[in-house]
């Protein structure tokens, strides 16, 4: 069952440009300096795109207010956001009323050890997924503690599943667990303490 735990990716507008930017990031890391591409020309063309975007961007304050309107951060967060080129992006499904999961395949931009996911990237995916599991379960908060155990390398280039479950809510303290698995084997497990609090949205 697909649920509204992430913003839907639109085929046009900034979502389409972000999808293209993800391709560029992946292709650049893949190419390195041993490809046949004229990288000086590539840099000129990418800088021209950035110049155009910077020249037409709204003031930062205005954009921040816009970002936190409506769907809020699910459109721009760095894990699921269709507006954010550094998001893989993950697309969550509900497992039950307190548990969610997403399956994705990461590539070279997220590499740490050879052909393996960077440990900090795993932490990002888990922190966010635990946070969204809290939102799904009905009580969310800010990460106060996140404890990770890296059991084995998390592979690139093949499907991995990121899952999280809200375990308990005790006053403002929310305890949540999660894991990244590949081929059914745990690669990283996480335990999080979240404190129920709601930072003000930019206005
Ligand atoms: C359906 C879909 C929904 C989607 C939703 C969108 C999801 C988005 C997902 C995004 C996910 C991404 C998520 C992110 O990226 S969140 C960003 C990363 N986190 C932060 O930046 C948090 C920064 N820290 C703070 O803001 C404050 O310190 C917090 C809010 C955490 C607590 O400050 P606050 O002033 O409010 O609390 P308090 O001092 O009154 O303490 C209250 C109680 O808590 C206990 N305590 C506090 N800290 C700790 C600690 N470190 N270890 C153990 N215990 C701790 C404390 O002892 C006390 O217990 P007790 O004495 O009462 O027993």
Small-molecule binders here are: tetradecanoyl-COA
Q: Quaternary arrangement of the chains shown?
A: single chain
Radius of gyration: 18 Å
* Overall strand count: 6
GO biological process, one term: fatty acid metabolic process
Subcellular location: Cell projection, Ruffle membrane; Cytoplasm; Membrane
Pfam families: 4HBT, RHA1_ro05818_N
Keywords: Apoptosis, Cell membrane, Cell projection, Cytoplasm, Fatty acid metabolism, Hydrolase, Lipid metabolism, Membrane, Transit peptide
What does this entry look like structurally?
This protein has a domain at 88-195: Thiol Ester Dehydrase, Chain A, CATH 3.10.129. The chain has helices at 13-31, 39-56, 60-67, 119-137, and strands at residues 93-96, 99-104, 142-150, 160-170, 173-182, 185-195. A hairpin with a 2-residue loop joins strand 1 (93-96) and strand 2 (99-104). The model has no long low-confidence stretch (mean pLDDT 95). The protein has a six-stranded antiparallel sheet, with helices on one face. With 203 residues, it is α+β, with helices and mostly antiparallel strands. The protein has four helices and six strands; from the N terminus they run H-H-H-E-E-H-E-E-E-E.
